Amino acid sequence: MDKFVIRDKGTAVYLYNSVKNLLQPTPTTMIRNNRAAISTKITTTSASKTVSKRKANNEESQEELEVAIEKKVKITQTTTSTSSSIHPFFSQSVSATTSTSTHMQMIWIQKSDGFLIGSFNNPLGRAKIAAFDLDSTLIATKSGNVHPKDAHDWKWWHHSVPKNLRELDESGYKLVLITNQAGLKNSTKLNAFKTKVTNVLSGLALPAQILISTQVDQYRKPLTGGWEWLRDEGNDGVKIGRSFLGKGITENESCSYETGSIMLVADSYLEQSFYVGDAAGRLAGWKAGHKKDFSCTDRKFAENLSLTFHIPEEFFLGEPKAAFDWGGFEPKKLPKNSPLFTPTTTSLVPDDRHQEVVVLVGYPACGKSQFASRWLVPKGYVYVNQDTLKTKDKCVAAATKAVKEGKSVVIDNTNPDSVTRSAYIDLAKSHHIPARCFWFVAPEALARHNNAYRALRKIGGNENKREMVPGMAYNVYNGKFKEPEVGEGFVEVKKVNFVWDGEEEEKKEWERWWY
Q: Where are the beta strands (DSSP E) in 133-280?
């Protein structure tokens, strides 16, 4: 009776008799050692090739496993040919290009306009994922420039990187690179980046996937669309973070099948998957001579997925954790008892409902439109919005018409400076009615968070979605902003806080990192 032994803490169990006919009768042994001292050993006594690992969940039947093995065999047959056949997890009707050497293959799939997937050397599904950012985490530029000069301007971030990645692969981890690359705006840049990635992974010579976001959409970190694709489509059906011991098999238990015997010895429970990246929110001087991190995107991405997070210095070099900041705003810490507005000594809407002009001031996506529709429009205020009317002149004309008709009006624009606001103050003065300012004091980080949330949210339906405001709009606002004052001609300046107004399910989605 043919036997093989799998020693692993969670890697796949194979049905030996499903692959027996495909293997030559010469014995081969492969031993892999875990970098964390957790050994993974696969021994075969009747195979000429190493049996590749595959995972499945503990509810799969023997018949389902045989089907899975058959699929795996088809994959193996494509990796050494120049055929355009591709890995079965790329089941969509999309085009693929391959770069093939004698033993290695690079497959590229354009999943959507902003999501590119690379598969190198036929990576199979595993329950443990070792995920990494690319630039300034696994590689750096040879030139020392922030951005590479060409496809060949790269080197390993540290000489220990390849060794560490090999040990992870040997320990049963699947290597996955997840990177934002918004700069790939044309085919020349995209092809150069593909060449660089192929060179990097060829130098590593390990099975790996790379998930690339080239647009601001659900695949761009800190959003988790890339990971969700990996979980649902890109991991051969293997459940991430769950070990499989076989149906009815427990640790240190032997199980016999019709033609063969499988013994599984699990050293310990499956370790958690993790993510390593350099966009970690570290403060200036976190290390001697080091600047503040440009963002906290990688840390937020890991937080959204409840993944253990490491900075490269900590993971590869063993350095201590560094102090960091989330960026001045944490959605889960939004104050629960803040007043909607201050001062509270005067009413939001005049008790006598006298005619007035209300000018809103604040960042894009800070809550102005929702506030106006919730509190002012139902009270009879005419709503004037430049996103709808397109120009300031049309806004002034619409406001003038409303005032002449004896109606109160609310101006829902960003209105960052006194010059912009003065047109509406002058309108009020010319008709002898008061003008008030409602200043929305939400910080920029909260407004950017809302901007991404309302454009990319899943809950609430498409009718509640808005177009993404370009990041440049926030820079323009900051450059023009002047704090509104009564001295400009307002009878009152109210400060309006961002207060959550929605369902609990929606709030849970909003509390994730979106920016």
A: 139-140, 155-156, 173-180, 208-213, 254-257, 260-265, 274-276
φ, ψ of residue 18 in degrees (nearest 5): -75, -25
Torsion of CA 442, 443, 446, 447, to 10 degrees: 80
Among residues 365, 336, 339, 316, which one has the least CA distance to residue 466?
A: 365
Yes or no: domain 96-239+272-317 corresponds to CATH 3.40.50.1000? yes
CATH 3.40.50.2300: does it fit domain 341-510? no
Buried b (16+ CB within 10 A) or exposed e, 13-48: bbbbbbbeeebeeeebeeebebeeebebebbbebbe
E strands, 277-403, where?
A: 308-310, 341-342, 357-361, 382-385
Number of Cβ atoms within 10 Å of the Cβ of 388: 11
Q: Give the number of other Cβ atoms within 10 Å of residue 387's Cβ.
A: 12
pTM for this prediction:
0.75
pLDDT band at 106 (very low <50, low <70, confident <90, very high): very high
Contact yes or no for 214/181 (Cβ under 8 A): yes
**Amino acid present at 235:** N
Which amino acid makes up residue 437? C
Report the alpha-carbon distance of residue 196 to residue 224 in Å, rounded. Answer: 24
**pLDDT level of residue 272 (50, 70, 90 thresholds):** confident
Neighbouring C-beta atoms of residue 442, cutoff 10 Å: 21
Q: Which of 57, 51, 111, 114 is nearest to 87 (CA)?
A: 111
Beta strands 105-112 and 409-412, pairing class: unpaired
What's the pLDDT tens digit per position in 471-485? 999 999 999 999 999
Interval 324-338: pLDDT, tens: 999 889 999 999 899
Domain ranges of the chain: 3-78+249-265, 96-239+272-317, 341-510
C-alpha 74: how far from chain center:
32
User: Residue 241's pLDDT is what?
Assistant: 77
Least confident of 46-50, 170-174, 228-232, 390-394: 46-50
Domains 96-239+272-317 and 341-510 share a fold: yes
Q: What is the pLDDT of residues 390-434, one digit of tens each?
A: 999 999 999 999 999 999 999 999 999 999 999 999 999 999 999
For 67-87, give the DSSP string: HHHHHHHHHHHHTTS------
Residue with tokens 């060179």: 199
- Furthest-apart CA pair in the chain: how many Å? 100
Question: Tens digits of per-residue pLDDT, 183-229?
Answer: 999 999 999 999 999 999 999 999 999 999 999 999 999 999 999 99
Give me 275's structure tokens.
Answer: 């993510």
Asked if 417 contacts 480 with a C-beta cutoff of 8 angstroms, the reply is: yes
Structure tokens at 313: 């210095």
Q: Which two tokens stand for residue 388?
A: 């709808």
